[in-house]
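Subject: Re: docking follow-up (pyridoxal-5'-phosphate)

Dear J.,

Thanks for your patience while I sorted out the input files. As discussed at Tuesday's group meeting, I've set up the holo structure prediction with pyridoxal-5'-phosphate included as the bound ligand rather than trying to dock it afterwards. The sequence and the ligand SMILES I used are pasted below, so you can double-check that they match what you have on your end before we go further.
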Amino acid sequence: MTIKNSLRSQPDASGHFGSFGGRYVAETLMPLILELEKVYKAARQDPEFDAEFTQLLRTYVGRPNPLYYAQRLTEALRAGAPEGPNGQKKGAKIYLKREELNHTGAHKINNCIGQALLARRMGKKKVIAETGAGQHGVATATVAALFGMECKIFMGAKDVERQKPNVFRMKLLGAEVVPVVSGSQTLKDAMNDALRHWVSNVHDTFYIIGTAAGPHPYPELVRDFQSIIGREAREQILEIEGRLPDMLIAPVGGGSNAIGLFHPFLDDAEVKMIGVEAAGEGLQGKHAASLAGGASGILHGNRTYLLQDEDGQITEAHSISAGLDYPGIGPEHSWLHEIGRVEYMPITDDEALASFQKLAALEGIIPALESAHAIASAEKVAPTMDADQIIVVNLSGRGDKDIFTVADALGVEM
Amino acid sequence: MTADRLAARFATCKEAGRAALVTFVTAGDPTVAATPAILDALVAGGADIIELGMPFTDPMADGPAIELANLRSLGSGTKTRDIFHLATTFRARHPHTPLVLMGYANPMLVRGSEWFAGQCRQAGVDGVICVDVPPEEDAEIGPALRAAGIHLIRLATPTTDAARLPAVLDGASGFLYHVAVAGITGKQQAAQAAVEQAVARLKAATDLPIAVGFGVRSAEQAAAIGRVADGVVVGSAIVDIIGSHGDAAAPFVQEFVASLRGALNANSPHYRETTA
Ligand SMILES: Cc1ncc(COP(=O)(O)O)c(C=O)c1O
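The structure tokens for the complex came back this morning:
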């Protein structure tokens, strides 16, 4: 059902979210993405597709995952919060949506299952993917194993170095990991090489894009597959608290976990939302905050906010978190930013590192560095909210993959 | 348009009974200072049409040769204003040789399509190939170029089927660029039979001249394609020469281009040893 004036009815028929999105690809790829759009539309109408997707999420991924009240984190933040007008300490109640408990340890698998089902519908036996942190690579390699498909993962050489455990996991799962040495050797370059491979192998290869970006229909279909996060969270908070949350917070790389959490709530005006961008060394230094520090441009198949210079050359992003180290953002976020529906907040490497440790110490949960950015944001806003208010933070992934990076940043020898 | 250099050049070549030689280099590769001599070498070697690549940090449709050329150019500090300056001075030296800018949407559109089209017009650029703006997104660049009298040259690929071809041709002008392989620049070589089939199919659908490119590396290949197409595009093979010889590349480029042109001339029924 599409409600008039709904914020949930984007994109339009040509894949645009306001002035963002679209299909900016080489002609060779156009027929394929038009075909994908057709197949996806049909799949969406097909109860069998949904039944299989839902069944796999339940029995293979382990959904629904819990919505957990982080009481010790909530209380610790209240202790440092000012008093409200009623004399009571401020400090909203913080819930964590536990995507890190999914099979493979992050939200990425939700989308991979959906796209692998589409690949199978299109008769493609080979899948490729780009990966930054390695989470999407692992998730893609996992579904490739599950569906018996041949799998190639493109990964920046720098990321291959800083995410060794995930590289080994992908190989165990039977995938070939292709280190990408061009450009900045991170996620954007991995995406370039994945596109180069795809354009040369369109006849038998499906590209499983890992975030809510790329040419239409990818931003839409990735969002739809990830929206299970928000639908579950909505049901769970209604059951636990009997009302909707006041605030949603999620980290934003390309934006898939965030849009997955946000989308089912977009028409609930009382629910505020914060997408957390990686501010790296700070917005004056090297960072990956494309909304705070970028401008509208065209890259990787879509029009969206990008880090770029005055000539439209893409500038290198930086974040301690490989999964946020990307100079762009999904087009729906650019649109939500421009219409002011979602607020985007930059969080630095140092703030994320502090929150990484804090969540481990207070809740016994080691978050992914990406998710630690969202925790850091919650630490800033919770004390400004009343104690009877509710925040839901997307704990998009677990931090096992990051322990080497964090140890290194803290100067600890392992 | 007062003087359509592209149409005039294709007509001249047709009269001469041979295909037009279209050559690609990246602007500012290896440096902005070295580019004019390389462009002159293309013309002296017998190129009919010059494609000047606008470097981009993320050339997703290009193979290693042209990707490296993009990085060499940007690494030596090439800016967009340098590219238009190169075009302007080229136009002054070569009033009749068509010049086409080829590149990616973001550097072209970062200051708006009207700004870009205006710069092209002022610099004497005849046409633009924008790799990542398909007909579906024509509004981004097409209207501004048409208003400025600049040809928007579209690409047709092995995946452009009969149902899609009219959309590609709608708004295309100058010539139609047939991408001979489904892939990136400089990689595989297309089978001659497939090229011939594709060109026949395209000719049945349009009166625009058909130029064939991607994977054309040798004089023999150029000659074979030149027997069926109106134009033959050679890029990576020239860019490789620049990659090996750097600032001193011009004479080597000229020699290679002359060999390509010689092969195309040899196709002509009234073959004579001249350059246009
Ligand atoms: C755990 C985790 N969270 C967040 C992200 C960022 O991606 P997205 O913005 O698409 O959710 C990643 C990407 O690798 C990730 O691994």
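A couple of observations from a first look. The two ends of chain A are 54 Å apart (CA to CA). The CA atoms of residues 71 and 94 of chain A lie 7 Å apart.

Let me know if you'd like me to rerun anything.

Best regards,
T.
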